[in-house]
Structures are given as C-alpha cells and as structure tokens.
Amino acid sequence: MSATQGETPRLEVRGLSKRYGPVLANDDISLAVAPAELHCLLGENGAGKSTLSACIYGLAVSDMGEILVDGQRLDLRSPADAIAAGIGMVHQHFVLVPRFTVLENIVVGTGSGLRLDLAAARGRITDLCARLHLDIDLDRRVDSLSVGEMQWVEIVKSLYLGARLLILDEPTAVLTPQESERLFALIAELKGSGIAIILITHKMNEVMRSDRVSVLRKGRLVATLTTADTTRDALTELMVGRSVATIEARHIAASQGASLSVRGLTLSAPRGSLIQAIDLDVAPGEILGIAGVAGNGQDELLETIAGIRAPRAGTITLRGEPMSSLGAAEVAGRGVGHVPSDRFRDGLARDFTIAENLILGQQWLRRWRKGPLLDRAAMAANGQDAIARYAIATTGPEQPSGRLSGGNAQKVIIAREFAKAQHLLLLNQPTRGVDVGAIEFIHAEVLAKRDQGCAVILVSEELDDLFALSDRIIVMFRNEVMGEVRRGAFDKTAIGRLMAGARAA
Fold first, then answer.
1. What is the mean pLDDT of residues 258-279?
2. 287-291 and 455-459 beta bridge pairing
3. How far apart are the first and last CA of the chain?
4. 186 vs 60, 181, 195, 197, 353, CA distance in Å?
5. Over 90: is that where the pLDDT of 14 sits?
6. Same-fold call for 11-240 versus 260-335+421-499
7. Residue 474: which of 453, 456, 498, 493 has the closest Cα?
8. Which candidate in 51, 273, 347, 369 could, as Cys together with 343 as Cys, close a disulfide (CB 3.0–4.6 Å)?
9. d(Cα 335, Cα 44) in Å, to the nearest integer?
C-alpha cells in the first residue's frame, strides 16, 4: 500500500543528511511511508540503511532535513523522543533483560513516579496479545524463551508503548522458516490495524512481500518502487549497480575418505552439555552444511574443532592426525581457517588496522617479522592485496577495522581465514547481515576453496546458503544432531521441522 493523494503519510522524511567525519552516510534522503504499509529499505552494507533508521528512531541526530509522523514535525534527540512520537524499533540483537519476566520486560520504564499498576498493565498486554493471536506466557523469564518468542516480546513491547510506526531490523535472521512465516502473518495483522512497518532485510524473498521498496546506494536514495511492479533482478541491479548471478554448487564427488573425522565429541558446561556426543565426517572437496536456530550448539561445535574450546570427551582428527588436545594457534597451523559467527566480538580487534587484523593469530610467522618487530611494509602490501581481491570498501590498510561496515568487516575476516584454510574451512554464518553482492562473492570463494580440495563445514541460519552450497546438511537442536539430508532431497519444510526439534525418522 502506498499513500493515496491527500492522505497524510505515517512517516515522512525530507532532505535528510547525516555525516560521520568524511563519510556522508545519508545524502539528501526523502521518502514517505503510508499507514498500513510494509515498506522495505534495501541496500548494500554501508549504503545508509542503519544510519537512516537510527535517525528515525532517535539513536542519531541528522545534520539536515526533517522527520514527520502523521504530519507533525519531530525533533528527535533520543529513542525516548521517538517512542513518545509513536515510533518503535525491534533491533536485530534484542534489548531484553534475560532475568526479567516477559511482563517485566514489557513494562520496565513505563511507570509514573514510584507507582506501576502491574495488574492493569497485564490486562492491556493480554488484550493486545489476543488481538494479535500471540500466545505468550507473561510470567516466563525471558532467558527461557526461544529466539522467536523473544521477537514477539520485542514487538509487543513496542506496540504496548503505542507504536504506530514499527521498524524491524533483519527480523528473520535467527528464525526458523516456520517462525518467519508466523512473523509475516503478524505483520499482516499489524497492517490491518493501520500500523506502518519499515522492514530492513537482505533476503529478496522477504523484500518481494513488501508493498513498496526504497533502494539506497552509497548513502543516496536511488528509487522507491511499488514492489508488485518490479522484479528481484531489477532491485538487485539498482542496489549494487550491476546484475548479480545466483551461484549454486554443482555437486561433485568428494574424495574418498574423511579429511576431518569427529567421534563422540562432547563439551560440558556447569548446567549441562554444550554439545553432546557429536559424530561427523567431512571429505576433501566436500561442503557439510549445519542448519539450526542460533544457540543449539553450532558455535560450540566449530569452536571445539578450531581448538578454542577443549572437549570433555571424544576425538577430532584431521588428515589422520589427532587434534583434540591442540590449541587454536596449533590448529590454525595445521591448515584450518575459522570464520566466527560474531565478526566484531570474535573475528576482529576493532582498534587494530585492517593490515593488523589480516595477520591476527599469525603475527609470529617469519613472513610478518623484521627481526623482533613486525614488518609493516609486508603487512601493508598484504593489506592492499586483500583489499583489491576482496573488494573491501575502505580508505586503506591502515583504517581501523571498527570503522568498517558489517559486510566489509566480514570480508577482512574471510580474507584472513581463507588464506589459512589449506585443509579445513570452518564457516559460521558467513553471510549474516551482508548484501546480495557480498553473498555472491562469498559463495564463489567458498566453492573455490572446495574445488581446491579443502573440506568445508558451513553453519548458517540461511537455508538458501545451505541449499546453494552444501553436499549434505545436518540439523542441530539442543546440542544434538537431529538428522541428515543429502543434496537432491533438500526441503525447507522438513528441515524446518528438524530445526524445531522433530527428530528424523
């Protein structure tokens, strides 16, 4: 739905610009969102989507321009100002208090003075959930909820606070296919009650479910289109400035025998197992996909294989050599690359330069040293090569990595870890939060590694990634393997059931 002539837009942005130092993140952006409209923001990493949504939600203050809600000009200096104006936002990384109940999370900060009428709040929230067909136990602690349930809580909280415009930032990134469908059913309910929704997503199948889509490129709005009147290919070309090929692996016969063999791998925690008796084999030139909602043991499995965690039981062998007792540096020295799931927490040192991050973990090697000191000239040359090969958008190898967009930060990690991966490549969410152009590039690099005879384990919550690249897919749920599916029998519904805990027959 788009605004009809004479109808007041729910949101109107006029001539908005925002600069961060030398970078013009938003350049004279103007757009409107109608009541009851699902409006998609589409663009590459670094195109300006996050900056625009931050300005609309009061997380950043624009340098120029105006923001209006229902025709009223706003002076947004904080999220509190946005909430008061009827703007809500559900962030990709939830901002709930784990030890609080659902009710407490929804009402925290909403009382006046020293009094908060919890009984009245419970009644309002119960009515709201009933209207939206949501079954949420208000007395459960948030740390006991599934990821999908946490998302419902975030949405209900925004609506309880009076949101008439709701911004959803990558809302399906950690949902099963079934939960994603439930979310879009909920979006339809919200639209039916007149609520406008801005959807930020990189998934083209979700983009095509919107009413209109605004495409950003290099900080500028290049087009706003009625979605029904355009195509995926046309939107992709608007977004990246060129056509993008869909890459799908051609199945090839992997070498006989296992390059990596894992038997009975168990990792314990004070309150139970993080992974439980995992068995798997990966042959040279084979891609093994691992599907599952975040938090079901995938991170721990890859970290144990990479030597970051020590297993309680079980064995890991690579090319017939035991690795179970090796640390991370020793494992990397055996020709293993590891791309972690959280690029900034585990993959990069934010304050280090790109050149420094590209040799992180290898700084003791002779090629990077000049006597007792680092060879800065060699590091700079390596940085320039990586920037050119991986198309990293940066001012140069001396730029601090913390200033990179998410997709470009991912490319730095991939450049480093793919160089290490001579025999085994461990990939954890390699395309999370990156645009379609970067996905095309990453897929091509993974297949090139496979074709060189490298064994690959690919963990992804994006089934499209797994279907495109994997020879086999195993599904993890609550730290165990629920089943295995081979190429030719991939099915989203069946894999979604395994992701939700239904063990294969």
1. 86
2. parallel
3. 44
4. 29, 9, 11, 11, 43
5. yes
6. yes
7. 498
8. 347
9. 32
Average pLDDT over residues 432-436: 72
- Full DSSP string of 30-78: EEEE-TT-EEEEEE-TTSSHHHHHHHHTTSS--SEEEEEETTEEE---S
* Residue found by looking up tokens 């690959």 in the block: 456
d(CA 427, CA 414): 9
Query: Which tokens in the block code for residue 56?
Result: 């609309």
- Residue 185 burial class via C-beta count within 10 angstroms: exposed 0-12, middle 13-18, buried 19 and up: exposed
Domain positions in the chain: 11-240, 260-335+421-499, 350-409
Task: With both helix axes pointing from N to C terminus, report the angle between 376-390 and 406-420 in degrees, rounded to the nearest 10.
Answer: 110
Contact assessment for residue 348 and residue 415, using Cβ atoms and an 8 Å cutoff:
no
The three-point CA angle 452-456-462 to 5° equals 125
Q: Write down how long the chain is.
A: 505
CATH class of 260-335+421-499: alpha beta
| Model confidence, pTM | 0.71
How many secondary structure helices (H) and strands (E) does the chain include? 16, 22
132 CA to centre of own chain = 26
Closest by CA position to 265, among listed 251, 279, 252, 254: 279
What is the C-alpha separation between 465 and 19, in angstroms, rounded?
34
Joined together, the tokens standing for residue 218 give 């290099």
Distance CA 290, CA 280 (A): 11
Q: Is the pLDDT of residue 126 over 90?
A: yes
Amino acid at 175: L
User: If you average pLDDT over every residue of the chain, what do you get?
Assistant: 88
Residue type at 458? L
Q: Which amino acid is at 267?
A: L
Helix then strand then coil, in percent of the chain rounded to 5, is 35, 25, 40
* Cα(154)–Cα(40) distance, integer angstroms: 19
Pick the CATH number of 11-240 from 3.40.50.300, 3.40.50.720, 3.40.50.1380, 1.10.3720.10: 3.40.50.300
The label of the residue with tokens 């700079």 reads 380
The three-state secondary structure class of 183 is: helix
Decide: helix, strand or coil at residue 141.
strand
353/418 Cα distance (integer angstroms): 19
CA distance 52 to 414: 28
Encoding tokens for residue 253?
Answer: 């016969």
